[in-house]
UniProtKB/TrEMBL annotation:
GO terms for biological process: AMP salvage; purine nucleobase metabolic process; purine ribonucleoside salvage. This is Adenosine kinase. The gene is LOC119633829. It is found in: Nucleus. CDD domains: adenosine_kinase (cd01168). ATP dependent phosphorylation of adenosine and other related nucleoside analogs to monophosphate derivatives. It comes from the Eukaryota. InterPro entries: Adenokinase (IPR001805), Carboh/pur_kinase_PfkB_CS (IPR002173), PfkB_dom (IPR011611), Ribokinase-like (IPR029056). It comes from Glossina fuscipes. GO terms for cellular component: cytosol; nucleus. The keyword Transmembrane does not apply. Its main location: nucleus.
Amino acid sequence: MEKLREHLVVSLGNPLLDIVATVDSEFLDKYNLRPDNAILAKDEHMSLYKDLVEKYNPDYIAGGSAQNTLRVCQWILQKPKIAAFFGCVGKDDYANILEKKATQDGLSVFYEYAVDAPTGTCAVLISNGHRSLCAHLAAANEFTVEHLQKPENRELWENARYFYITGFFLVINPAAVMQVAQHAYDSKSTFMLNLSASFVMQQFKEPLMAVMPYVKVLFGNVEEAKSFARAYDWETKDLKEIGLKLVALDKENCEGERIVIITQGPRPVLAFQGCAIKEYPVQRFTPEQIVDTTAAGDAFCGGFLAQYIQSKDLDVCIRCGIWAASQIIQHSGCTFEGKPSFRE
């Protein structure tokens, strides 16, 4: 078992400043947004951010799915700089806020700075216990393979043993993801992928299938799993069947079986390995206890990761994921406080 050390985990992602507010359904309708959906901003959404700030007095939270996952992982580990994060930001105040908040949470960040684009933002719109995400990636779109290739950066990620990538980032720079995936394979390291959102399967099928053989651990929720099945014409909506098919997809690395984890909100988490399927119950909450489900999936992955990199049993990894998600949904945004109380 590898001991916890600096930069054991590396992630590539989209660093975004979350602008979080509770809105009414008229606001969602105005911008053609649906509850519990995640989309990339189009032209029609460009005035949304200003509108949100003027009308709703939002909170600002360091965000971006991968960065959230690593922040939760760091919180649980209570040991700084185990995780290193690469992404692209603008040269502006939002970037400073992001860096400050991420490093306060124990993360090492290695941002690339875009010359002409502002730091990315994500509108997190909460209504009736649901959340809708609209991300304006801006500078996050500008991430380059050259940034990864800088000698000091390259040395850092080549020494990592675990790689965590989101589908959101696969959309931005498939070449960077493939480079890291190939390295993980060559160095017998572990490459993990989060499907992230249905549009990844629908619109970016080719880069997803190119990287899939390298994936040792795959995360997704119900909607994403079903979207994957639809995108690949698997004529089934049965989650257990879909999970087994995901496990069985071609794999480069013959060592160990792929693990597939499908979260279902308040319903049990499904874990697939080989032909085995296990269900893990999720703690029940009253509607009053649930503040914001936005980062539940990110937090689940953070809890899982914190145990997985310590070579804990899959059961412990998943229970920690469920525990982490249960903590995060009781706060606004991906925020936490105090010492983590998870016990194996």
